[in-house]
Amino acid sequence: PGLHYGEAFLADAPVPEAFDGAFARTGALPASKLLFFDTETTGLAGGTGTRAFMVGAADWLDGRLRVRQLTIATLAAETSMLEAFRAWLAPDTILVSYNGKCYDAPLLATRYRLARRANPLAGLMHVDLLYPSRRHWRGVYENCRLATIERQVLRVLREDDLPGSEAPAAWLSYLR
C-alpha cells in the first residue's frame, strides 16, 4: 500500500551490443547491463531528513527502452520502494546517472541504511555522465547542468517539464 509502479516501453533505434566507454574512462559498456536511474527527493539538504519519493530507471529489454518508475504516496511505503528498486539490480548492473555518484547513490545508501537494509548499489560500477560532460564542455556553455547539456549538445528541449526544484512541492500537493 502506498507504492505506485509505472512502466512504459518506447520503440528505440537498434541498440548496439556495447557502448564505447572511453568518454567515461572505462572500457566497453554492454548495453544489456546498463541501468539509467534518477531520484526525486524531498529536498537537496541531504542527511536523514531527505527522502527519495520517486525512483526512476530505464534499460533496454527486447530491443525496446523500458522506463520504470516507483513513487511513494505514504512515507510507510519507502521500504517497499527500496526493495522494489533492489530487485531491478543484478551483481553486474552498470549504473548510469547524471550527478548520481554525489547525490542519488549516497541518498539511497542512507535510506537503505535507515531501513536496516544492505545497500544494493555498493560495489556496482557507476558511470556518472556529469564528469565527462564537465571535462568536455566546461567553459563552452554557461554550466554543465543536465538541462543545459540536453539543450546544447543533444538538441533536446523538454516540453511541459516540471523543474526538479518544484518536484517536492508537487509531490506534497499530490499527497494532500
What best-fitting shape do the alpha-carbon axes yield? globular
The proportion of residues in beta strands is 25-35%
SS field, number of helical segments: 5
Note the main sheet: 6 strands, mixed
Rg calculated over all Cα atoms: 17 Å
Structural class: alpha/beta
Amount of helix: 25-40%
Mean pLDDT: 93
List the strand order in the largest sheet: 1-6-5-4-7-8
Poorly predicted regions: none
Cα(first) to Cα(last) distance is 17 Å
What's the SSE pattern?
Answer: EEEEEEHEHEHHH
The total strand number stands at 8
What does this entry look like structurally?
This protein has 176 residues and is of the alpha/beta class. The chain contains five helices and eight strands, in the order ββββββαβαβααα. The protein has helices at residues 78-87, 100-114, 130-137, 146-152, 167-175; strands spanning 3-11, 18-19, 29-30, 34-41, 52-61, 64-72, 94-97, 125-128. The strands form two sheets. The chain has a six-stranded mixed beta sheet with strand order 1-6-5-4-7-8. Strand 7, helix 2 (100-114) and strand 8 form a beta-alpha-beta unit. The two termini are 17 Å apart. The model has no long low-confidence stretch (mean pLDDT 93).
